[in-house]
């Protein structure tokens, strides 16, 4: 069987050495074509069409000696590459989805996780002969059947309104003017609702919406990133920053994996 060719990029030489060892010892179907610790050298290599066309898989660290792995991807044509992110920073997993990555391996990398990623690539390669992710398929959720166009009924003292699930960014507990919650929409409008969050939670598709804390339910597709500091914070697509308890973090990552079909 023809070996798949890969390129490794990591600014720390010891990480390159370890990944090289793992691949050579445990991933016999791979051949390491090149390895780089300097972004500029890696970028020059991948900008060469002849060299890039010979590469199947790109193992990419996110924090490089100059900029990030995302910055590097912005400078090359990676449409025919299987991109595997290798990093110690799990807060970039959501952004990685935008780059259609195959997998997101957290350091220290486990051999079993690495082997599973390679098997995933090989299986999909046999089936479709193209990268694992299709941006249009992700955005439309063509493979999971989640109902983004399902209408949600919003009741208040003045009206009963139907909105689409996909147009909701988050819902916040809000006790004002007779309302018990507020639905924040993608068009920046805010719709008062007479239902408490627990009632709304029972109506919404739990595959798409997540109870982030006592005061907020979020649309997972509208999360831009997760910031980690003293506390965890979800940054939504409209710029709002919503606090997240530590015990909700891992379950949210599980829901994201389930929704987007990728490992974090």
SS summary, helix count: 9
Second rung of CATH, namely the architecture of the largest domain: 3-Layer(aba) Sandwich
CATH level 1 name of the largest domain: Alpha Beta
What is the H/E order? EHEHHEHEHEHHEEEEEHEEEEEH
Q: Strand order within the widest sheet?
A: 2-1-3-4-5
Question: How many domains is the backbone divided into?
Answer: 2
Rg result: 21 Å
| First and last CA, distance | 29 Å
Q: In total, how many beta strands?
A: 15
Average pLDDT, to the nearest integer? 85
Q: How is the CATH topology of the largest domain named? A: Rossmann fold
Strand composition percent: 25-35%
CA-based shape: elongated
Strand pairing plus helix content: what structural class? alpha/beta
Q: What's the CATH H-level homologous superfamily of the largest domain?
A: Response regulator
**Helical residues, percent:** 25-40%
Unreliable stretches covering 5 or more consecutive residues? 129-145
Largest sheet composition:
5 strands, parallel
Label this structure with key terms:
alpha/beta, Rossmann fold, OB fold (Dihydrolipoamide Acetyltransferase, E2P), five-stranded antiparallel beta sheet, 9 helices, 33% helix
Explained architecture:
With 264 residues, the protein is of the alpha/beta class. It folds into two domains: 4-133, Rossmann fold, CATH 3.40.50; 151-260, LytTr DNA-binding domain (OB fold (Dihydrolipoamide Acetyltransferase, E2P)), CATH 2.40.50. The chain is built from nine helices and 15 strands. The protein has helices spanning 13-26, 39-47, 49-53, 69-74, 93-98, 111-128, 135-140, 197-203, 246-260; strands at 4-9, 30-36, 57-60, 82-87, 103-106, 151-155, 160-164, 168-176, 179-185, 190-193, 209-211, 216-219, 223-228, 232-236, 241-244. The strands form four sheets. A five-stranded parallel sheet has the order 2-1-3-4-5. It has a five-stranded antiparallel sheet with strand order 10-9-8-12-11, with no helix packed on it. A three-stranded antiparallel sheet has the order 13-14-15. 29% of the residues are buried.
